[in-house]
Amino acid sequence: MSRSLRCILVVCLLLIPGAIFGQSIPITGSVTLVDAISENMNGHGSGFTFSGYVGDAADPFGLCYSGQVCDGSALNGATTLVIFTDQLPVTHSYGCLGNVCSPKAPNQGISGILNVTYKFSFQTPTSDQPISIDVPITMSGSLSAIGSSNQTLWTVNISANGKAKLVGDVQSGLLRFTFVTFKYAGTASVVAEP
Prior knowledge:
Elements (H helix, E strand, L loop, with lengths): L2 H17 L4 E11 L3 E8 L2 E7 L7 E4 L3 E3 L8 E4 L7 E7 L2 E2 L7 E10 L2 E3 L5 E18 L5 E20 L2 E18 L3
Antiparallel strand pairs: 1-2, 1-13, 2-3, 3-7, 4-13, 5-10, 6-9, 7-8, 9-11, 11-12, 12-13
């Protein structure tokens, strides 16, 4: 291989990881929330992946009174999803953008907030019964990879839509949502670091 061809190859290999910055990456992912137990979330696309786990959760995710209108604003325990850096064993997170990955170490990983809006409205039943409904959602927020010395390695802005399954029970005049799961699709827009 000629020297000039090797130089071109080396320059191309150096530019590829940086080429991902400034673009929007199509992503898919899922979130599962179990009241008082855990929050699991993930997302992935071409050259991008993240996962987050929190060993605790709201209890319950939302309440509605029997006979009254129940809508998405009732899910105040499931509208702001916080992704924390590693604080093992309670929280764990990890992510990669191109070949830049968050370290797997205490106080490092992924940090950010995803805001979720649940779109539904119905009359809460007056009799005791289980509830399971599928509702549309929108999600937006930002995630950053945090390295040593609290250094931000990269940041992406997330914008997505999907469908959530909400599960709960009406008991003694109160609907308690205790399980939320959803899948989403959207984009991760890479933010250029200063």
